[in-house]
Amino acid sequence: MIIKNRDELSTSRLRKQALDILESAINRVLPPNIMKSALRYDATGRMLTVNGDTYSLSRGRLFVIGGGKASGLMAETLESIIHPENISAGVINSKSHDYKTSKIKIVPAGHPIPDQRGISGVKEMLALRERYSINENDLILCLISGGGSALMPYPVEEIDLADKQKITELLLSSGAEIDEINALRKHLSEIKGGRLGRFYSPATVVSLLLSDVIGNNMSVIASGPTFPDPSTFSDALSVLGKYSLLEAAPERVTDYLRKGCQGNAEETPKTLDNCHNYIIGDNKLALETMAKKAEEAGFTPFIVTAEQKGETTAVAISRANELLSTKYAAYDAILIGGETTPKLPANAGKGGRNQHYAAVSMLAMKQYPGKWVMASMGTDGSDFLPDVAGAMVDNHSLDSAKARGIDIKAYLDRYDSNTLLARIGSSLIVTGDTGTNVGDVIIYLLKPS
User: Fold this and answer.
1) Spatial distance between the Cα atoms of 430 and 449, rounded to a whole number of angstroms
2) 320-351 residue pLDDT tens
3) What domains sit in the chain, N to C, each tagged with a CATH number?
């Protein structure tokens, strides 16, 4: 059972059905289910096949590196497909080391704020090249998922970890889109923006990607460590200007970016002939699974998009207005994927984008003529807070809040959704670390009167 507090949340049949549909999505995008269909290894001929493309290891060795929220389970699954005796060495950065691997070392690291453990793990990955004299006959298998940007920190020499942590905190609360945030990350890193892939050249680098990025832009997933980077130092610096962060950003960060703009720091690579990248799982796959499960339960589902983005409050209100209109009148299971971006006030409380989305929806859906339930959750099991995956609300949640004398709007204004939903009860979704990460999934189940 993925959702650990199902009994608490299952206060109605409609809620139980929503939980079943959500769990089907997580199950489908777990690394064991995805990797076993995407990856084949012929130990006799020493041939690795990824999504139909074959790579020969007849003259070389196999090494494993990578990072992300799903990378630990990806590494564990990999050793069940390619037995450990066929792997020379490996190092992976993950949120947890609670995975069973015998050849691939799992290094726990910080997320969403990078830490020294992450830097140490990256150093171990890079040390493999010299230690094993990695050459053009060898293959580096890179396991990448969302969260890799924070979990694989390795700042350029001109800035330190404290600078990286500060700029990360500023960006995460600014309302910047993930591609904008990662443009900065790439230009402050020795390994992001394709630099990791180039580091191992002339060895072949094959990356397996679990995408949590809207549109599956491979240069953005985990800041594209093995993918050519189309962004520039100028793009990175302009993000700070766009979100009024030039004054608040650490001076060494802005100085280094300006140095790059002037051509005095090396740009990220724009081509990478030795790197091959494959998306093996994404948000769309999760939504398609949800639609199938909804049909089996007797609903008529509609996938609105796998690319929802925008400011969290505005998007939640807009979606509710669509449901209150006749736009989706022919459907009673509305499915959405993507990631919204909250713009936090200075006095922000506890919560995450999924909890806030659900809390806003509770008010925005109050005029719906019938029964409804909606839930929004991160497929990784962490909605900014590590112990909450997201939230579920329904037409009874507002009544419960009013009965307790709760001023919902006051909580929403200060983005204190976690405290609000905890007070209402039967709202917060708890899964723990799921072992995967393909962004957020949202479901509305509707029973018009």
Assistant:
1) 31
2) 999 999 899 999 999 999 999 998 888 899 99
3) 6-27+283-448 (3.40.1480.10), 31-281 (3.40.50.10180)
